[in-house]
Amino acid sequence: MEKYHVLEMIGEGSFGRVYKGRKKYSAQVVALKFIPKLGRSEKELRNLQREIEIMRGLWHPNIVHMLDSFETDKEVVVVTDYAEGELFQILEDDGKLPEDQVQAIAAQLVSALYYLHSHRILHRDMKPQNILLAKGGGIKLCDFGFARAMSTNTMVLTSIKGTPLYMSPELVEERPYDHTADLWSVGCILYELAVGTPPFYTTSIFQLVSLILKDPVRWPSTISSCFKNFLQGLLTKDPRQRLSWPDLLHHPFIAGRVTIITEPAGSDLGTPFTSRLPPELQVLKDEQAHRLAPKGNQSRILRQACKLMAEEAKQKEDQNAGSALEQEDRLSKVTPSTAPVPGLKATPQESSLLAGILASEMKNNWEDWGAGEAPRTSRENHINLECEQGFPEPRPEAMGRQSTDVVDPENEEPDSDDEWQRLLETSEPGPVQLKSPLTLLCNPDFCQRIQSQLRGTGEQCFSVLCEAVDGNSWAISKAFYSSLLTTQRAVLDGLLHGLTVPQLPFHTPPGAPQVSQPLREQSEDVPGAISSALAAMCTAPVGLPSCWDAKEQVSWHLANQLTEDSSQLRPSLISGLRHHVLCLHLLKVLYACCYISERLCHILGQEPLALESLLMLVQGKVKVADWEESTEVALYLLSLLVFRLQDLPSGMEKLGSEVATLFTHSHVVSLVNAAACLLGQLGQQGVTFDLQPREWIAAAAHALSAPAEVRLTPPCSCGFYDGLLVLLLQLLTQVQGKPGLIRDVAGSEVWTILWHRFSMALRLPEEVSAQEDDLLLSSPSSLEPDWTLISPQGMAALLSLAMAIFTQESQLCLSHLSQHGSVLMLTLKHLLSPSFLHHLSQAPQGPEFLPVVVLSVCKLLCFPFALDVDADLLVGVLADLRASEVVVCLLQVCCHHLSLLQAELPIGLLTRLALMDSASLKQFVNTVATSSRAIISFLSVVLLSDQPLMISDLLSLLTHTARILSPSHLSFIQELLSGSDESYRPLRSLLGHSENTVRVRAYGLLGHLLQHSMALRGALQSQSGLLNLLLLGLGDKDPAVRRSASFAVGNAAYQAGPLGPALAAAVPSMTQLLGDAQDGIRRNAASALGNLGPEGLGKELLKCQVPQRLLEMACGDPQPTVKEAALIALRSLQQESCIHQVLVSLGASEKLALLSLGNQLLPNSSNRPASVRHCRKLIQLLRPTHST
């Protein structure tokens, strides 16, 4: 069992139970069938072994594959494929199926049977209940309990196996049969799938036998002729004429649809059933069938049925005749032979399957019939038992009431009157019986023993009552435990008093009279029961939080009692820590009280006797009944003391080696984790302990892979694995200078196990944690994580551990994150999902660790973008993150869960994803557009914040949005820049920001928006001072700002409309930028001036000698792109007549002709710059014909 995780029970029957499970360290989901050995005969066990051996050799897509089998002391465990459901359930829900679906199922059933029959295996129990549904719509044949692998010498069989509704005529008549009996069953199944009922369906065994043997099949008009012909062939009553191999494969209904799996057959396998027998073997088969055929014409099944009916009728007559005498004698005496039940003896030769069914059908009051499985549904008709059971002899006690041997105690409601009458008859005292009790009641020693036992029993009952209350609702728990501090305070005070009253010495002093062992044990029962009751009141049960608050009140009351200097409770409790019976219970009381009282922790930290007892427990020097659990509680109590005191109590500095030994050598998982918790606390206080990497890696792998047995809540709301994770983080931090060791840890199985265990604690959706091949996290899980396994603090430690490893082994991180469907990537994405973050925010210490978890996840997801990554790998990572809408999750977590200071890294990651992936960008825009005002408000706060890096990232994201998407998606950006009062305060703040990077990106965003937004153009005209801020950027000291500002002004000037005249103030600054050292700025300035020409600013342009400057740039600038921009601007400006005349007067045509001629002399025409075309066009425009 160490190879599998058992998840949940999915089925139960007479054979045992079936559980859904998962193979450890993999995503393979399996079904585990647990079959108890107890109560099974050797024959049943042999049959089970035969079934296992048959299944072990089968490998077919339509047959359930047995993956493993093994035995424990009490059970046989069979591990098979996990299927999604039963075909039978579809019949129950839908009644029948369309013919095309029946056709697909028929092909798969025929394929499975062909495989079995080719290996000379008969299934012998074909029915819808034994056909499972696989993923993708396929079916799988299962349940080979009746299957038989036939040897070469065996041609036919005679033992009656199967389910009557699907039995062939030869089986019903108990004649020898062969593989064609399976084919008849297939016909019955397909008929039932298409029609809704089996072809021969009745609740009477006599009618069923008659129908199968004599009646024709009724064919509904809804099925096609091809399907009907196929079923007619399978449901032919004569097995020799029945449609069989190999003709069956070629029938039009399934031809070309059947998958044939061919395997090399062994030399001793013999002729497969799928081939026609040679004539000599056919003769041998006929002779064998004739020899084994039953003698006589009537079926033994019907003979047995008639016999049973006659016996039942005789039984009723005898009961009626003797009822009067029985009533008369019942009060005077009881005779064992009263109302005899007719014996159902049957020889093995007479017993058969259907006879057994008949007995079950007719039994009425014969309640102790068989051990067969109860009927699962009305469809099965309780017609499903093995023939070799026969008819058991009824026991005499079956007369009165149902026997508990055959009646399920959980479902049976006993006759209370009968039970009380039996009790009264048994306990009615006779005259002679009264003397002994009266004598005992006069004995004071006897009375004292009875009182002591009653007291102990009462306290045991109280412990059980506490456990029952813990499992109830919060209101019941609160009312119960509150009453112990109010109306029922006497109960609590009595228990505390009983713990302090001196009891009989546990060890008889030398020379004292020896006390008898029974009396010694009774004297120890009372304090044991008291301490157990106190522990039950205080201990918070794992996984039942509804009672925690109420129990804390009781623990707080006890803690106050323990901290009183005059109280005798604390010395009594501490002295009991070394007692083998009391130790565990008193440790739990102390732990619960210290958990809630820091003052008690400080007092215990200064109690030498308490510390000595705890240290001796950990060192194994105290013999206690439950050493493992007691040591676990002691370890947690010591961890709690160290955490509360933030210091080491006396003597604990020497404890490191003993606890380390427990951690590396214990096989008890809960003890290993408790030791890890204390080691982590000791390490934080500077205690050193020698742990070899090989040992602690193996210990961690064992602790994480074995089933979690959480018996006690670890200190400070920690999870079961928290201490182990903190310890691993400490150990890895100590070896940061040893990359080889970190590589060993990252490459070991513990790393894989760790993330699988984490995903299970998170309760990821089944398709995520169990299937890692082709599935994505399409929808977040709504299940709350199991905080008892890993708390928010533990999650933070695990993510810090991952950061420590991936920082040293970055390629390992890349391999995990780039692997499609890896458990690491699926887990990280889930940690950002809204559902998980909601649960985390509600968990104990969740709000404190939520930012730590989110930021750690963001750091891990940043790794692929910080490394030199192959482009294909990066595309895969982006696709994975896009599919889970990580951009949306990051935006929501920033808006709802993080402070502004904490949002910088998530905003940076969000920006990176949106810049690199257009689909992620659209997710961001759609989320902002469709969500509440909260996201717009958050983005507005970011733009007005004092976080320049976050502002720059957001501006880059908005600029990319304006550059890539259509204007219809940009309204939210206009809203962000204008502010809630439309005063454009955010835009003013950005354009005048002290950080150059912010100003650069603000002007860039404004430039892209001005290409589309008429509202923004209007704001530049109407909002006072806004245009001046825009123009101010043209003279900025930072060249990047000047470049962005010139780009924005140029777009504002393009088709400026009413804004045109206001842009006249920009001409001097733009003209000055024509001489800037950066070619990008010169290019933008030239384009902007060209855009101003058509806006009626010719005089301003001539005043600043813009035509002359542009002409000089076109002819002499060293950068081709600048030349091209100048030529395009001149083409635009020459439309103004005044500028046209100036260009002509400057001899622009001649100068441009020389430029054009120089370009034409280039040897390769492909190398000629694009400015040549603009140059020629401008020369043409400047000719006199155009001027007129």
TrEMBL record:
GO biological process: cilium assembly; microtubule-based process; smoothened signaling pathway
PROSITE patterns given in the database record: PROTEIN_KINASE_ATP, PROTEIN_KINASE_DOM, PROTEIN_KINASE_ST
Main location: cytoplasm
Residues that bind ATP: 33
Reaction catalyzed: L-threonyl-[protein] + ATP = O-phospho-L-threonyl-[protein] + ADP + H(+); L-seryl-[protein] + ATP = O-phospho-L-seryl-[protein] + ADP + H(+)
Family matches, as Pfam families: HEAT_2, Pkinase
Keywords on record: ATP-binding, Cell projection, Cilium biogenesis/degradation, Cytoplasm, Cytoskeleton, Developmental protein, Kinase, Magnesium, Metal-binding, Nucleotide-binding, Nucleus, Serine/threonine-protein kinase, Transferase
Keyword check for Cell inner membrane: no
Domain (Protein kinase): residue spans on this chain: 4-254
Names of the cofactor(s): Mg(2+)
Organism domain of life: Eukaryota
EC number: 2.7.11.1
Localization per Swiss-Prot or TrEMBL: Cytoplasm, Cytoskeleton, Cilium axoneme; Nucleus
Biased composition (Acidic residues): 407-418
GO cellular component: axoneme; nucleus
Region entry Disordered, spans: 313-348, 389-418
Single GO term (MF): metal ion binding
Function of the molecule: Serine/threonine protein kinase which plays an important role in the sonic hedgehog (Shh) pathway by regulating the activity of GLI transcription factors. Controls the activity of the transcriptional regulators GLI1, GLI2 and GLI3 by opposing the effect of SUFU and promoting their nuclear localization. GLI2 requires an additional function of STK36 to become transcriptionally active, but the enzyme does not need to possess an active kinase catalytic site for this to occur. Required for postnatal development, possibly by regulating the homeostasis of cerebral spinal fluid or ciliary function.
Listed PANTHER family: PROTEIN KINASE RELATED (PTHR22983), SERINE_THREONINE-PROTEIN KINASE 36 (PTHR22983:SF6)
Name of the protein in question: Serine/threonine-protein kinase 36
Organism listed in the record: Mus spicilegus (Mound-building mouse)
